[in-house]
Amino acid sequence: MLYLLPDMNLKLVPQLEELAPGSRIVIHDYDIEGIEADKSVTMTSLEDNTVHYVYLYTAPLKKEP
Predict the structure, then answer these.
(1) Euclidean distance between CA atoms 16 and 8, whole angstroms
(2) pTM value?
(3) Residues 6+ away with beta carbon under 8 Å from 46
(4) Which of 19, 39, 41, 49 could form a disulfide with 56 if both were Cys (CB 3.0 to 4.6 A apart)?
(5) Are 34 and 14 in contact (CB under 8 A)?
(6) CB-CB neighbours of 23 under 10 Å
(7) Which residue in 24, 25, 55, 57 sits closest to 40, CA to CA?
(8) Which candidate, 65, 10, 42, 45, places its Cα nearest to that of 56?
(9) Could you tell me the CA-to-CA distances from 61 to 32, 44, 52, 53 in Å, in that order?
(10) What are the angstrom distances between the C-alpha of 26 and each of 29, 50, 53?
C-alpha cells in the first residue's frame, strides 16, 4: 500500500518492477504516471464528502502505450 505524492510513486517504479509476478500494489489518491492500473475505484468519504481514488496494480507493471 502506497500513499505518496506522484513524483515519489515514479521514483519507486524500478523497485516495483522487481516484485514477484502477481504481487499486488494498492495506491491511495495518486496513480503512477505512465503505468496502466488494473483497476481504479473512486470513493467518497461519508465523514467529510472528500473524494478519494484507489488504484490497483499487479506485478509485472503494464506500461501505457
Answers:
(1) 12
(2) 0.89
(3) none
(4) 39
(5) no
(6) 13
(7) 55
(8) 42
(9) 10, 27, 22, 19
(10) 10, 19, 10
Helix/strand number for the chain, H first, E second: 2, 5
Is the sign of the CA dihedral 44, 47, 50, 55 positive or negative? negative
Q: First and final CA of the chain: distance in angstroms?
A: 25
As given in the structure block, the three cell numbers for residue 32 are 503512477
State mean pLDDT over 36-62.
97
**pLDDT score at 60:** 97
Q: Is the pLDDT of residue 65 over 90?
A: no
